[in-house]
Design a protein that fits this description.
This protein is α/β, with parallel strands linked by helices. It contains 10 helices and 10 strands.
Length: 377
């Protein structure tokens, strides 16, 4: 990024948008604060049937967007292209697929980079804290606008899986099934610690300026370091060993040069630089905080009261090498859901790719989802 550049959603593929204003008082958040108006950026694929009941909602992960599948007017590939389209598991000849950029994001939905109507400047850190539940409630407004009467399923991985589970609790009569991949009902302390390290990297960048960097120097170093920390947690030791081992990136004869990178170090720097070109650091702060705050049972008198609300069939997919949401943790949630009367199944993706497998192992994911949708488990 140039010294005065900063992320602009308009630099990327422009999605559809829906803007709503809740009166009186605006769109009320869990925190008690309100936003108005609220814009939700979204993409759709396929056609909604006359009954409004063939819709599937796909929820994206931390740095994802509404562009879940490729479209003729987008140069970028969709992040779940392998699962969405004619004849694929989420068949656009059969289903109406909706994906929305989350509240607090930076791909067209209202977030920290949006203009604060009270000041005419970007919110920055004046943006209110949002939760996974707030994101889901904003998505419900969008689906009502689109004419969706009932969802066949809600599916997503990582932060998207959190949203899928929240849908089952908050809108139990609206959702027939839920597919949550590499996610659980709340983050572990270790995962929160990783997120805090990433946030601190951004906030300790002198160019962050307490979030007031719009039209100023972009805090590129902080966001890049945050992404490097995150990337370590998304992979597995098997992936790093197979892909990089202990190979040096440059001149192997220059072994004792302090600034000589191992190949894995160069890869982390590359991943950090890539995110800097496409994401808003303040959104990174707010969305990781939303993940930390998420607890499926928060606000209910007991876990039984929360989970007992679920009427949807639930499929939980763990990943064998996931460091963030271990398969034991995801399997444990399935047991807990069944204990509270939920029709919940657990299956495991066998992969060396760690947490990122939900963006890679399309053949396995398709097979497992197909069995679930066909009622085999």
């Amino acid at each position: 990024m140039g010294s005065s550049a900063y992320f602009r959603a308009s630099d990327w593929h422009a999605p559809k948008t829906f803007t709503f204003a809740c009166q009186p008082g605006g769109f009320r958040l869990e925190s008690g604060r309100a936003l108005s108006p609220v814009t939700v950026a979204y993409e759709t694929y396929g056609c909604l049937d006359a009954s409004g009941s063939n819709a599937i909602l796909i929820a994206h992960a931390l740095t994802g967007s509404a562009l879940v599948a490729s479209s003729p007017d987008a140069e970028e590939e969709g992040w779940w292209d392998g699962l969405i389209g004619p004849g694929k598991i989420f068949d656009t000849d059969r289903y109406f697929i909706v994906c929305a950029n989350v509240l607090g994001g930076c791909y067209g939905s209202t977030g920290p980079a949006s203009l604060n109507p009270e000041t005419g400047r970007p919110f920055g850190m004046d943006f209110p804290v949002v939760t996974i539940r707030d994101m889901v409630c904003a998505q419900k407004k969008l689906l009502d606008y689109l004419g969706v009467k009932r969802l066949v399923t809600v599916a997503g991985g990582s932060m998207g899986g959190m949203q899928a589970l929240e849908w089952a609790v908050v809108f139990p009569g609206f959702v027939s099934s839920v597919i949550s991949i590499a996610a659980s009902e709340r983050l572990t302390p270790l995962a929160i610690a990783y997120n805090q390290a990433g946030r601190r990297a951004i906030m300790d960048d002198p160019d962050w300026r307490r979030g007031d960097y719009y039209d100023r120097t972009f805090p590129a170093s902080g966001l890049s370091l945050a992404r490097m920390i995150g990337t370590i947690t998304y992979k597995s030791n098997e992936t790093f060993e197979e892909r990089f081992g202990r190979k040096l990136q440059g001149d192997k004869s220059d072994y004792y040069n302090f600034f000589q990178d191992f190949a894995v170090e160069s890869y982390l720097s590359y991943q950090g630089a890539k995110l800097v070109s496409r994401f808003d650091p303040n959104s990174y702060l707010y969305l990781t905080k939303a993940m930390d705050l998420h607890d499926l049972t928060r606000g209910y008198t007991s876990p039984a009261a929360a989970m007992g609300r679920i009427r949807a069939r639930v499929l939980l997919l763990g990943i064998s090498t996931d460091l963030l949401y271990t398969p034991q943790e995801v399997r444990g949630l399935a047991v807990e859901l069944r204990r509270h009367g939920v029709d919940a199944s657990y299956r495991e993706i066998q992969s060396p790719f760690g947490h990122d497998a939900f963006l890679i192992e399309f053949a396995q994911i398709s097979r497992l989802i197909n069995g679930f949708l066909q009622g085999e488990y």
